């Protein structure tokens, strides 16, 4: 049905195409040569080749079918038949006339079959291109949504961190200070000391939680000091040996890039702490000719990255964060050596060095 409904609009489009008219001119040249050969009786010694001139029509007709589809092939085939009709009536008779008519009919039929196939392939290609465009639009929308969701998440983390630090921690500090000023019997004093120690642990825990939500050192001092703080915190809590290797001229990235790199390193260290059973972690941050490379390497038990990606929100989150800043992300792992790597080629600003 689509072939019928699209035929006339497409034919009008072909009539504005110079190539279409060049094909019709070629048909006219072939028909003129055909008439000249037959009127001069050039094939009188080889009468069996009387179909040869008509066969040359296959060249423009098949070209039209392959390049223009049915709306190009059918008019071209009918044009060939129309130009050959006087020769059939005047110069042929009997079996020769039947042979030429059959060949022209076969020519038109073949061109139509080829053109219909070409049209189907063309429509399939257009449908695939349209589907690819829709998929690309969907992926772009999804990437934009993920970016907005991650930014909203970071803003919420920042808000919670600020509120916990400025309100909850301060209230606990006030309560702890007031508690220290309370006098009592020796037995009461011992219990007050226990409450005081519990308050101190709460204060320390909330401060550590605030740092995990949004460490102020990242905003105040930059990426390298923030990574150093992450390692120190990990080592202090777990006893894992840590090292930070900072190579090349230290340059400041955009706040978004620094935040993404910090979150990738933070998630990698979280995995080390809870899953790797590692004794040592090394974080490498290297700048080289406008390219930045972050590596987090541990000597833990290792895992299967392909299987872990299917069920790990942490790895998926690192991948999505890296893609938001145009960075390449990869994970390799075997027993004794797990490596999380992020490669970024940003426009670095030496004036922003920290």
Tell me what you see in this structure.
- By secondary structure, the protein is of the alpha+beta class.
- It folds into two domains: 2-137; 217-352, Heat Shock Protein 90 (2-Layer Sandwich).
- It is 71% helix and 11% strand.
- It has twelve helices and five strands.
- It has a five-stranded mixed β-sheet with strand order 1-2-3-5-4, with helices on one face.
- Strand 1 (241-247), helix 10 and strand 2 (280-288) form a beta-alpha-beta unit.
- It is rod-shaped, with a radius of gyration of 40 Å.
- 22% of the residues are buried.
- Mean pLDDT is 81; it is low at 348-354.
In short:
71% of the residues lie in helices and 11% in strands. It has helices at residues 2-14, 18-39, 52-55, 58-68, 70-91, 94-180, 186-213, 216-221, 223-238, 255-276, 305-311, 313-324; strands at residues 241-247, 280-288, 291-298, 328-334, 337-344.
Helix content: over 70%
Biggest sheet statistics:
5 strands, mixed
Computed structural class: alpha+beta
E-strand count: 5
Separate helix tally: 12
**Count of distinct structural domains:** 2
Uncertain stretches of 5 or more adjacent residues: 348-354
Strands ordered across the widest β-sheet:
1-2-3-5-4
Strand content: 5-15%
Q: Compute the average pLDDT.
A: 81
What Rg, in angstroms, do the CA atoms define?
40 Å
Overall, the morphology is rod-shaped
Distance between the termini: 68 Å
| Helix-strand sequence | HHHHHHHHHEHEEHHEE
